[in-house]
Amino acid sequence: SLCSMAALETRLLVDEGAERAPPRPTVAARVAQGVSDFFNPSFKTCIWLLTAVCGFMDAVSFIGLGGLFTNIQTGNIVQLAFIVGYSTSDRVIDSKDRVGGLVVSLCSFCAGALIGGLTLHGPLSTWSNAYIKPKRIGFLIEWFLLLFGFVTSAYYLHRDRPYSPNILIMDYDAELWFCIMFCAGAMGLQAALVRQFGLTDFATNLMTLTLVGLIADSPLAGGKNVRWHRRLGSIWLFFSGCALGSALLLLCKGPLYALLADFLIFSYCLRGLLSGTPPPAPAAAPAAPAPAKAPVPAATTTPDPMPAKA
Predict the structure, then answer these.
(1) Closest Cα partner for 47 from 284, 301, 276?
(2) How far apart are CA 150 and CA 263, in angstroms?
(3) How far from the centroid of its chain's Cα atoms is residue 39's Cα?
(4) First-last CA distance in the chain
(5) Distance between CA 101 and CA 74 in Å, rounded?
(6) pTM
(7) Nearest to 42 by CA among 278, 212, 302
């Protein structure tokens, strides 16, 4: 009986071997996989980290470069409109240098967006090699722009100029003008690329629509809010990037180390952005079936009455 039971157990194991779970990996294998994933981030992870890059850049530009924005151009347009509206007022709220900085940032952002369009639809869109997929060369150009922005900021501080961040008035030198140009151009280029390769319901710089979608599609409003974690995560990453960038500006008394941290984060993401595989787009919701039409009743004809006899 013991032999028959052993034979039966062996037969059951052979029949159900395909359904058994694979053995759990060892601790060493899991650590090695974690290290490999850390040094080879996925494309999705890199897109998430770009939100922190935008937060760092806004903190650097607004606090460290005189109250302008190199990423959120809505702020620059609003400030220029305020300056135009207050131009006949006795209150002095700005200087000519700051107006020039706002214009330079806006124009550089537009130039970066144009370069991004050329890498997506122009002659550069077909260029690729073993490490860079088609239409990804723009991320490499952005890396160089961030590098040049960091170098110009380092050169400005290397001259031992007194640095006093002021969000209202600041005297711009040539080095800071170039720093604004490179940083704003990089953000414009990134914004154009994220429009093509971004994730659904995930924003890197436009938090207003993200917040509206998070609330308007919530269960309180009768919605499902399927990808609420993406919307909430983008807001949290943007907030964290701004907070950390502001702290670095306060501790280091200048934009140098904040720009360095921004550059290092983007450098970490560069390989995944150039050669990573984007996640598949979410499947479209099936169309609702058309309502069935009610059958049209057949026309009934009534026989003509017989003529009355004379």
Answers:
(1) 276
(2) 8
(3) 21
(4) 110
(5) 15
(6) 0.74
(7) 278
Distance CA 82, CA 168 (A): 13
135 Cβ contact list (under 8 Å, min separation 6) = 119, 120, 125, 196
Angle at 69 between CA 64 and CA 71, to 5 degrees: 120
Exposed e or buried b per residue across 145-171, where buried means at least 16 C-beta atoms within 10 angstroms of its C-beta: bbbbbbbbbbebbeeeeeeebeeeebe
Task: Give the helix ranges, DSSP H, for the chain.
Answer: 2-15, 27-39, 43-64, 73-85, 96-121, 137-158, 174-197, 207-216, 228-252, 256-275
52-108, pLDDT tens digit by residue? 899 889 888 888 877 888 998 988 898 888 887 776 555 545 455 578 888 889 999
The encoded tokens of residue 6 equal: 């052993």
Joined tokens for residue 304:
């003509």
- What one-character-per-residue DSSP string does 39-94 give? HS--HHHHHHHHHHHHHHHHHHHHHHTTS--SS-HHHHHHHHHHHHHTTTSS----
Instruction: Please report how the helices 137-158 and 256-275 are oriented relative to each other, as an axis angle in degrees rounded to 10.
Output: 170
CA dist., res. 219 & res. 191, Å (int): 31
- Count of positions (residues) in the chain: 310
Judged on CB neighbours under 10 Å (0-12, 13-18, 19+), 228 is middle
- Tell me the CA distances in angstroms from 101 to 143, 178, 188, one per residue in order: 22, 10, 16
In the DSSP assignment, the letter for residue 192 is H
Taking each helix axis as running N to C, give the angle between helix 96-121 and helix 73-85, from 0 to 180 degrees, rounded to the nearest 10. Answer: 140
Q: pLDDT tens digits, residue range 97-153?
A: 578 888 889 999 999 999 999 999 988 888 888 788 888 899 999 999 999 988 888
